[in-house]
Amino acid sequence: EIATADHFNRLFEISVEQPLDHNNPNGSTFTQKVYLGHVDFDTSLAFETEGYSRDEHRTRDLARIFQMNQLTVEHRYFGSSKPNPLDWQYLTVWQAAMDHHRIVELFKDLYPGKWISSGSSKGGDAAIFHRRFFPEDVDATVAFVAPILFSDRDTRFLEYYNIVGDAQCRQKLKDYQRLMLQNLDEFPPLFQEYVDFVNSTYGTNITFSLDYKAIIYHSIREDFPFEFWSSETVGCENIPDETSSIQELFDHYVAVMDVFLFFSDYGVDFWTPWYYQSVTEIGNYAYDIAHLEDLTMDIPELFDLGISTNFNEPVMNDIDNWVRTTNVPMMLIYGEDDPWTHAAFTVTKSENVVKIVNPGTKHSTRIENLSQENYSLVRDKINGWILND
Description:
By secondary structure, the chain is α/β, with parallel strands linked by helices. Helix content is 39%, strand content 14%.
């Protein structure tokens, strides 16, 4: 039991022993972290599926707004829910869904009321994936900003880069990418100064094993446009041009790219399981480097899992088909300005499956920053699910 928070009467951190391979329940196991926020045994429960690690309890939208119990599950292979050794073959959509199914089975007798599963981004995907395999485990699902991707480099995003914003802004962004690559050798010292400044200012000891030059080279080519359009603080007016100093070019780069989250030793450890999933089942966005081909350099890739991988296309095709045809109670909520919304699930007309694309919001879209119309719709729908006998 840990210190309680918000509206919960008691709060617990729980370790659940899970089979590494649910096809072999008597084989190797790992420990999965779960947080339980308890209100009352007869109260409805929000079943929160994390897509990544969860280092501490966090009260999510459903539990807070509707005063529900909350059961939060850290995703297998992330955080402290890692098997030892890391046998990557068991990090699959189906194995994770089995984790969630088993946890539902363990707790359902304690909490016999309505269950609503929920998650955001990759956690929202996890809620949908679990529901696909076990549609009767919960009474409804609310997934925030959850994309579906059909390859390790989903080419639908090539279209996105040609339509987002206006033509002038898109060209400024391309010109900025070229300026960064043309001055690539100038940035490693600035990178080191930035790391030293952050560590000294905040008393941290964040380390980088990846080469600074390689980080900037690959991220500017592959990830920077997506991160720019995802940003909620940086706009077209902030993009430096050829009159800008080297320092100004670099400052804009770190204002857009969270280099500590993505490329530090901590970041590499955090994201490696996601990277494996992205190249085997859940996919990633494509990137456009046609305008940078003349600036291609022989710089090694940043990540190497040390194993060969193949993308298993039928997995997401199956999920997509299920979402298009199901009639189980489910709500998919997106931000209109979020790049990931370009890969939003497609739903057919159903009184039970609701898709909302909220204007003016991005990847942080949640219930409390919806438009008034969408907020009312969501509250009414969820209240109906909770109260419906």
